[in-house]
Amino acid sequence: MGQTLSEPVIDKHSTTGGDERYLYGASAMQGWRISMEDAHTTLLKLGPNGESAFLLSTTATVARRRPILGEKAYSSGYYEDAIKSGFLSADAHLREKPEMTNDSSGCTAVGVLLTKDGTAYCGNAGDSRCIISSKGRAIALSTTTSPRTKLSSTASHRANNSSLPAEKQVVTAHPDVIKHTITADDEFIVVACDGIWDCMTNQQVAQFVHAKVVEGKKLDQICEDMMDRCLASESELGGVGCDNMTVVIVAILNGKTEEEWYAHVKNVAEETNMKSSPTLKKDYERNFEVSDLDIDADGTTSAIIKQALQSDEEEAAGVDIRADALEGNVAAAAAAAVAKKSEDN
Fold this sequence. Notes:
Blueprint: E1 4-18, E2 22-33, E3 39-43, E4 52-57, H1 60-65, H2 72-75, H3 79-95, E5 109-114, E6 119-125, E7 129-134, E8 137-140, H4 154-159, E9 176-181, E10 186-192, H5 194-197, H6 202-214, H7 219-230, E11 245-252, H8 258-271, H9 302-309, H10 312-316, H11 323-327, H12 330-344
Antiparallel strand pairs: 1-2, 2-11, 3-4, 4-5, 5-6, 6-9, 7-8, 7-10, 10-11
Helix pairs in contact: 6-7, 6-8, 9-12
């Protein structure tokens, strides 16, 4: 998780914007971490073809460099190829920086490109995530994979087999890209860092946005409320709710005015029983006792439980973990989850 402060920095840096196709709200908060590593970019007009782009990264270099726009594939309309080559180009740029030579931390990045013809291309490398809400149902636009969870650093490249192409490396900047055709049922897109997804599932994020619209909140306010909801009350909770947090919410107008869009999302919330905020993943009272299990001294199993509980499918499979284990005894919870899944199978 990294070092934490004695008190969280809860100042929010929020922005809003919009045009005839999209509205967006974005916000970032340092939280308990000793520095703010997240960076994001919101571009309603990306290039000559009228695309929009929303990018979030755990390094400002990637978020601000706009690597995709300069790719030949982009100007030719091959957006998936442009995203893949753009991520690799950003990685190469990082590795050329002298200050990155001995930096083994790496970074993650997720971005969604919205074309003028109504297609969304989402590229992701790491554990940030992107969803789209369609009639109240969260649809994943990105996949979280392990151990490919860091945009490659110089040290990571040395650890990999350099004779293999980027997409075959164990740790790689080569992104997974998901294509989605936007329909009249699609309401909004959420791009967020792992500080949010550690605490909320895809569907909980979608429900949270709907519930806040019912309360009369605007997109930037919803981003701020989501980060506050995920923020840990103290820093001794195993990292859950202690990370940097960034959220970008993009409203898909589909020909509606701003007022009509908010009214539409409110109606969806009422029709799908999402008028109230969800109980978050980190707050669940689980019925699987893990308090007597040993905790791995080096925490090597913590990644297992983190990956399992970030997945809606894994939760549906019956991985029952108490919230105190999730937040504190993460390694023990991982062992319990593995044992429980083995029993179920």
